[in-house]
Known about the structure:
With 283 residues, the chain is an alpha/beta fold. 43% of the residues lie in helices and 20% in strands.
Amino acid sequence: MQVTPEELKLIADYVKSLCGVVLDSSKAYLVESRLRPLVQELGLSNYRELYFKAKSDATGRLSNRIVDAITTQETSFFRDQSPFELLKHKLLPEHADRCAKASPLGPYSLNIWSAASSTGQEAYSIGISIKQVYQDLSKWRIRILGTDISDAAVAEASYARYSQLALERGFPREQINTYFKPVDGMWQVNDEIRAMATFRKFNLLGPLTGLGRFDIIYCRNVAIYFSPENRRTLFNNLADQLNPDGYLVIGSTESLLGITERFKRLEYLNSICYRVTNSAQVI
C-alpha cells in the first residue's frame, strides 16, 4: 500500500503537530513501513482514512499509536560506544572531583537525563557505566531520568526486561550476569542499576518544566528529525536545564554549529561533547 503525495502531506503535518518530527517527501517509505500495519489492523483502505480516524478519536489513543510507530528508533546497549567511554573516562571522574572538592565527606549527587531514551537501553547503559566508575554508591544520590514521546517505549523501558538477542547487540557477553538477572525467559536489569532510573513520557518541544536540573544530558539522534527552528529552541532549552559546567552529549553525526552559542565544543580522545556556557564563543 503506497502513500500518495496528498496523504503524505496530511500525515506529515499531523505528526509534526504531535511531536515535531519532520517527514519530508523522502520519508514516504517510513510512513508506509511504520503505518501500514496500523492501517491494515484497523481495516482501513488508505492513509487518508487513518488520518481522519485519528483526528476524530477523542481518546487520543490512535494519535499515540501513530507517534509510537513513527518515532520508535533502533537502539541497543552502549550504542556507538564512544559516548559511554567519554562518560566513564572524563565526565564521571570530573564530576566526582568537583563533588569531593565541594563536600569532602559527601553525600554527592549526580543527575543525568537521557532525553530520547526509547526503550531504555541508553539510560541503563549510563547506569552501568556509573557503577563501573564509582563502584561504591553509598555516598551517591543518583538520578537518571529517561524520557521519550512514545508511550510504548516508556513502558518497555520501565519494565527493564530484554531478550538475549537485545543484550548481545552491544553488551559484553561476560558481563551479562553482573548487571542482569534471568526472569521468565528474559533478562532484567538488576535492582541496583534499575533503582537509578525513572522513565516518563515527554515531548522535547514542550516546556522543560518540572524536570529539575542536570549535570549531564544525553540527547542523541533525535533533533535531526526536527526543523532548524525547533532544533535551536530545543538546544537552548537544554542549556537552561544544565547545572553550571554541565555537559551535553549529542549524536556523533550532529553538530551545534550555527544552531546555538550556549555551548562550548570539547574534544576528548575520539569523542565530542559540549559544555554549557553563557559565552557567545564556540570553539
